[in-house]
Automatic annotation (TrEMBL):
Keyword annotations of the record: Coiled coil, Oxidoreductase
Lineage of origin: Bacteria, Bacillati, Actinomycetota, Actinomycetes, Mycobacteriales
Protein name as annotated: Fatty acid desaturase
EC supergroup of this enzyme: oxidoreductase
Gene that this sequence comes from: desA3_4
Enzyme Commission identifier(s): 1.14.19.-
Oxidoreductase recorded as keyword: yes
GO molecular function: oxidoreductase activity, acting on paired donors, with oxidation of a pair of donors resulting in the reduction of molecular oxygen to two molecules of water
Any Pfam family the entry gives: FA_desaturase
Residue ranges occupied by any Fatty acid desaturase domain in the UniProt entry: 72-335
GO biological process per UniProt: lipid biosynthetic process
Record field: transmembrane: none
Statement: the UniProt record of this protein carries the keyword NADP: no
GO cellular component, one term: membrane
Organism for this UniProt entry: Mycolicibacterium obuense
């Protein structure tokens, strides 16, 4: 099942983990010391680009009786919404730009263009998810309370709908993220009262009212007789943003190799083991500069989970140093093409819709769920240098 001893799973000693933490702390210190005008210029230009695209999209839809104008307006508006959610909203609310002391882009002030209120997002994502990353029973992002994504979640009949829930979540992703802030899992467990849920829903309702009013009432009305075309184009732009955000998030959290952990492991965790959990519990995907930008640089999900409050435009250079550390400590660096990472995530969703008795791999050695017990029968290869997790996984694959 999930990992109970991360040092044993990673094949590292306590000293190894401490040394790894020191080297990662040094990366943080180097980036913090080198932040400056180049980074400030990057975020300001990103804001200017996003606003220009949003304005261009809205203006184009005034002529939405023309098919060309509809396509151009929808494309610009969808792109603007993706940039705002991924590279701006997500990263600004993480505090990545608080060091600039600019109130416009401070984490306490930014309200992003989605139905999820930023105040609830910062609690469910920045605090809960990033603190308890992939800890079964503590991180609600493992399945979002509506899907089974690890064998540590006991199968129940309703989970047969995994593929359907997945499709609905991708289609209405911004709504799913908003409702995620209600913490339905806690309510089911009796850890949250009905009154608290209703208060959260009121906050969400106010934000939903603003978003629906903007996209489906005010802007369509402003285009006069073209209002029907504008309304449809706004809806399409939101769906495009939803699917893209959903794919990026799933590719960073649920491909094979993004491990799960137990509460026991978390309770005894050191700083170095926290770093290690972020490294082993996240996954990247291959991206050039444009795709990296459009993903909010979350193609570097491993780096983001270790340094969530460092500027996203620095993740590419951080990744070079993280890869070097993975080589040094013989650790895997989980990455791959976008479509492969998504397929692995989707295949996990399909498989885990079924009870464990219909699944082939054992619960301690499955692609989506593993523990340190998967290595019980593997012997070190004589004459090899320091044997870490990456070598152990290769030996395990050859022995299987």
């Amino acid at each position: 099942m999930a990992i109970t001893d991360i040092k044993a799973y990673a094949h590292l000693t306590e000293e190894d983990v401490e040394n790894l933490a020191a080297e990662l702390d040094q990366i943080r210190a180097d980036i913090e010391e080198s932040r400056g005008e180049r980074d400030a210029r990057y975020i300001r230009r990103t804001i200017q680009l996003q606003r220009a695209l949003a304005a261009g999209g809205r203006i184009s839809l005034f002529a939405s009786s023309s098919r060309i104008a509809r396509v151009a307006g929808t494309a610009m508006l969808a792109t603007a919404k993706i940039i705002e959610n991924m590279e701006l909203g997500h990263n600004i609310t993480h505090g990545q730009w608080d060091w600039m002391n600019d109130p416009e882009i401070h984490s306490t002030e930014w309200e992003w263009d989605t139905t999820s209120p930023s105040v609830q997002w910062k609690k469910s994502h920045n605090f809960i998810h990033h603190k308890y990353t992939n800890v079964v029973g503590l991180d609600d992002d493992i399945g979002y309370g509506i899907m089974r994504l690890t064998r540590d979640q006991r199968w129940e009949r309703w989970m047969i709908g995994n593929p359907i829930y997945n499709l609905l979540l991708g289609t209405f992703f911004e709504w799913g993220v908003a409702l995620h802030g209600v913490e339905v899992t806690k309510y089911r467990k009796g850890e949250k009262s009905r009154g608290e849920v209703l208060r959260d829903l009121k906050v969400i309702g106010r934000k939903v009212g603003k978003q629906v009013g903007k996209d489906y009432i005010v802007f369509p009305a402003l285009t006069g007789t073209n209002w029907k075309h504008t309304l449809k184009c706004n809806a399409v732009a939101n769906f495009i943003r939803n699917y893209w955000a959903y794919m990026v998030i799933f590719c960073g959290h649920f491909p094979d190799g993004a491990e799960k952990f137990t509460e026991e492991e978390f309770e005894n965790e050191t700083r170095g083991e926290w770093y290690l959990r972020q490294m082993l519990g996240s996954a990247n995907f291959h991206a050039g500069p444009v795709m990296a930008f459009m993903s909010g640089n979350l193609c570097y999900q491993i780096e983001h989970h270790m340094f969530p409050d460092l500027p996203s435009n620095r993740y590419a250079e951080i990744s070079v140093r993280v890869k070097d550390l993975c080589e040094k400590y013989d650790l895997p660096y989980t990455t791959g093409p976008l479509l492969r990472q998504y397929w692995q995530s989707f295949w996990t969703i399909l498989k885990l819709a079924l009870p464990d008795k219909y699944l082939k791999a054992p619960s301690d050695d499955a692609p989506e769920t593993a523990s340190e017990r998967r290595f019980g029968r593997v012997e070190p290869t004589p004459g090899t240098p320091k044997r870490g997790l990456r070598t152990a996984l290769r030996e395990r694959a050859r022995a299987a």
